[in-house]
Amino acid sequence: MQFTSKFWRKFHDELGTQLTFSTTFHPQTDGQSERTIKVLEEMLRSCVIDIGGYWDKFLPLCEFFYDNSYYSSIDMAPFEELYGRGCRSPIRWFEAGDEKSLGVDLVKDAQD
Q1: Tens of pLDDT along the chain (112 residues)?
Q2: Which one, of 8, 90, 60, 72, lies nearest residue 35 by Cα?
Q3: Rounded distance, CA 13 to CA 70, Å?
Q4: Which of helix, strand or coil describes residue 68?
Q5: Which residues contact residue 61 at a Cβ distance below 8 angstroms, ignoring those fewer than 6 apart?
Q6: Alpha carbon of residue 28 to chain centroid
Q7: How confident is the model at residue 1, as a pLDDT?
Q8: For the residues of 34-58, what is the DSSP string, one character each?
Q9: Which of 18, 20, 22 is CA-nearest to residue 34?
Q10: Do residues 85 and 67 lie in contact, with contact meaning Cβ atoms separated by under 8 Å?
Q11: Cβ(78)–Cβ(70) under 8 Å?
C-alpha cells in the first residue's frame, strides 16, 4: 500500500496534474525521465563523436541546448517555462530578420 498525504493529493488536484509514482532507483518506469536521459545521451554522444574528447566537458553545453529547445509537450522551451521568457543568449540575438545590436546596445539588450 502506498502512502500519499492528503496534502499532495489535494495539491495535484488543484493544479490539474496527475501524481504518478515510480520505483526508487528505477528511472525506466518514468517515461519522461527516460526520454530526457535518452535525449541528453544522444547529444553527448554526438559531441564526443563529432568533436572528440570527454563527455563531461560537454555536459553544460548539452544542458544549455536541452533547456533552450522547443518541446511540444509544454509548447515552449524548458527555460522559457521556468523563467517566463526566452533565453537571452548570443544565438538568439542574431535570429533571421532581427535588427543587429552592437557594442553597448548588445550588452544592454542582454540585460533587458
Answers
A1: 355 677 877 887 887 877 776 666 665 666 777 788 888 888 888 877 877 777 787 788 888 888 888 888 889 988 899 889 888 776 655 555 555 555 556 556 655 6
A2: 72
A3: 27
A4: coil
A5: 47
A6: 19
A7: 39
A8: HHHHHHHHHHHHHHHHHH-S-HHHH
A9: 22
A10: no
A11: no
The one-letter code for the residue type at 87 is C
Residue with cell 543568449: 89
Locate the DSSP E strands across 54-102: none
Instruction: State the pLDDT at residue 72.
Output: 85
C-alpha cell at 52: 572528440
Q: Which residue has the cell 518541446?
A: 71
Write the single-letter amino acid at 14: E
Q: Are 39 and 66 in contact, with CB atoms under 8 Å apart?
A: yes
CB-CB neighbours of 51 under 10 Å: 10
Per-residue pLDDT, 101: 54
Number of H helices and E strands in the chain, helices first, is 6, 0
0.70 exceeded by pTM: no
